[in-house]
Amino acid sequence: MITARRLLFTGTVAAIGGVSFFLLGLPLPFLLGSMLATALLQTLRSDTLPVPQGVTQLAQALIGVSIGFSFSLSFHQSLIGLAVPLIVYLLAIMVLGFVSGYLLFKLSDLDGMTALFCCVPGGASEMISYSEAYGADSRIVATYHTARIVLIIVSMSFLAPWLAGGPGGEAISGGAEPSIGLGASWTPLLLLIGTLAWWLSTRIRFRAASFLLAVLLGVIGNGVWFHLDKAPLSYTMIGQMLLGVSVGSKFDRATWIRIVRLGKTMMLVMIFTLLISLGLGYLFYRVTSVGLVTSLLATIPGGAAEMATIALTLGRDVTLVAAIQMIRLFTMFLVAPGMTIWLGRRLAARGTEGKG
């Protein structure tokens, strides 16, 4: 009962943060506002409150339904035309992860396995699980991935609207979705569909099940019943707030202590990874017919749901963004752990005499 009240209080604080950011006209307000409000609350708490994993999965399901409403069924044609640049991108982003991991290993006191798992551009939860199974420090890996995702979300929330050619707040809250109440009558039914997708994901377990099942149900539901151009803002803000709570809740005092301990080294490597990722996104834009903002959101390793959410609010090709992000996650999930373990063991065999 006490935990339920504390979760309700956390949700209230997150909602206040999201609405405050919305009223201030800040980019991606419901995600950023709730995330920062929750992080502040967790930091101030003497007894932190772990947010259940189900909250993250439910958030991904609700966002997946939103994306399904904007999904183009002809996206496979675009992917076929992008096959070669996409393969080159996947190889480059994998190499970037290993180079970043090696830099973190050389510049810090972390062991090779931990440093490499920190920098693999794959799903955070999967990399944390793998790191724990193979003797890496999963706490450091979790801290690094959380900080990386927050850095990318915040950076792209401001950079993408600027590149799109308008003020961040206007592009998000003053464009195609000017009112929270617009289309709100559909919100309860959409919440039911998102909850159904989340429930199915607990029964049918596979990579990113809640997100993919929700996209599929969103496509079917909109095609058969709703026929809307996009999900109403009153619905999408709920998914964004839940995602903000999930990410922000990971920033307790212990996390900040680990960040401070690694300090400049962690930030240096994360910024290096971010800048090179932006460069890869720009090259993807130059060699394809995809727009610059869409290319950046599709290729930067910031999470499929998070980057697709930004694309959705900016009116970009959310189908392509979600598809490329999921291809990256699946590729990293299949290939990167084996390579990471092999390289980590080689670094461990060499010892630490060359570090520093």
**Which oligomerization state do the chains in this entry correspond to?**
single chain
The count of strands amounts to 0
Strand content: under 5%
Please state the CA-atom Rg, rounded to the nearest Å: 20 Å
CATH topology: Na+/H+ antiporter like fold
Structure, described:
InterPro entries: AbrB_dup (IPR017516), AbrB_fam (IPR007820). The chain has 356 residues and is mostly helical. It is built from 16 helices and no strands. Helix 1 crosses helix 12 and helix 7 runs antiparallel to helix 8.
Secondary structure elements and pairings:
Elements: H1 2-23, H2 29-44, H3 53-69, H4 75-81, H5 83-107, H6 112-119, H7 124-133, H8 138-163, H9 168-173, H10 187-203, H11 209-226, H12 233-248, H13 253-287, H14 292-299, H15 304-314, H16 318-350
Helix pairs in contact: 1-2, 1-12, 2-12, 3-10, 3-11, 3-12, 3-15, 5-6, 5-13, 5-16, 6-7, 6-8, 6-16, 7-8, 8-13, 8-14, 8-15, 10-11, 13-14, 14-15, 14-16, 15-16
